[in-house]
Amino acid sequence: MAISPKTTALQVTSVLNERFEKLLISTDEAIIDAGRKTEKQQLIESSEQNESRRLLLVVEELANKKKEVAANAEQAYLQGVEDEFHKHLIQDLKVEFQDTKMIMDKVLRFDPSLGKLLDVLYTEACSISRLVSCLETLPWLETSILKYVRQPKYHRKDSSGQLIDLKTIRSALSFVGIESLRTLVPALIAKHALPSKSEFTPDLMKHLWVYTIGTGNAAKAIANKFDVRPEFAFNIGLFGNIGRTVITNLYLRAFDNKLRQQISKARKKNDLNQATALSTLEPSSRYIVSLTKQYSAIINANIIKALNCRWLMIAIGFEDFLKIKELNIDHVKKLDLHPFANLLFTAQGYMHYRMLAANKLIDKPAATAYLRSFGIDSSHLTILSKVNLTGIELNISGIIEESEEK
Q1: CA distances (Å), 27 to each of 22, 30, 236, 352, 356, in order?
Q2: What is the distance between the alpha carbons of residues 213 and 208, in angstroms, rounded to a whole number?
Q3: Which pLDDT tens digit goes with each residue over 292-331?
Q4: Strand pairing category for 391-396 and 399-404
Q5: 279 contacts: CB under 8 Å, gap ≥ 6
Q6: Tens digits of residue pLDDT in 327-378
Q7: Are 234 and 186 a contacting pair, CB within 8 Å?
Q8: Could you report the per-residue pLDDT of 84-126, keeping only the tens digit for each?
Q9: How many Å apart are CA 43 and CA 21, to the nearest integer?
Q10: How far is residue 248 from each of residues 27, 35, 45, 104, 227, measured CA to CA in Å?
């Protein structure tokens, strides 16, 4: 949807929020939403085949119009089948969305000890031994840490010139150091929580990571303006998208299962038209966006609560975030939310803007109104303009760097 000069500030925010949701899943969908043409569409229009269409005889054009009418009727039938299918699918998903234990175990592979690890990580009494103990029930995180430190850029040699091989998790943790682990570990946890790759959500994994790490870095940068500790802010920003992953993964899995059931049911009823129509269905980004808007925040809050952090007590921020019903700073101010929730709202809003701007999906007048709707003023922008949003600051083995955690 294009934004006209007469569009109100609230309408601008609504349109751009919808565009951002589409951008996360597919750049092409966001480009179309902005009233532009994708590269693929432009290539088709400039092709010889498209040129020949312009030269069709009048008779052929009339024949095509008749075919179009028939196609529209078929499309209407298919749309009805898709809507009915999703009505049943969503009922099943609503039940799964409430099963936090299943989500933790089967979707995220988050052992309850993850909360204890995060608590230990940020206490003054944190030690390598205590971290090793916490990681015993988190083999995927051990693997991620070892893989990270074994990158060529971290290769070191001993006094005899031999390459030092970091074989154990203890040696890897010692090599990174506790201070850098306080940045690296939550980043690796957030990366683990990204959705699975799927042809139906072509850009989601890549874009959601940019959104996630960017929100964490943005929240950390402006934490002082909300009287929030930087390490709390970083984790709040990083863990604010877990609900999106859950919804996407559960939707795609449930879609396949439900589709097989419905096709089988239609065939048993000898309804070949419905069976054929069902067999043409594919997962829909439209429904993923709709489900995300309705359920991601509550799923997120339930997951963070289930981690049961006793020191990194950020759950209250996600609980308060549930009260936000409009992405508008005036509405948010009236709610008198916990600073954690206010910080997450602003940091996510800034990343909405940055990602839309990076893809040329927002113009300057709309950007001004959009930033204002998230309570972002010049003081925020002064700070955030200097931040490397997609990197993580580490000091490993005496070398300070801003690593691009891709």
Answers
A1: 7, 5, 26, 14, 10
A2: 9
A3: 999 999 999 999 999 999 999 999 999 999 999 999 999 9
A4: antiparallel
A5: 263
A6: 999 999 999 999 999 999 999 999 999 999 999 999 999 999 999 999 999 9
A7: yes
A8: 999 999 999 999 999 999 999 999 999 989 999 999 999 999 9
A9: 26
A10: 17, 26, 33, 15, 34
- Joined together, the tokens standing for residue 130 give 């205590």
Average pLDDT value for residue range 232-253: 97
Model confidence, pTM: 0.89
Six-digit token string for 54:
């312009």
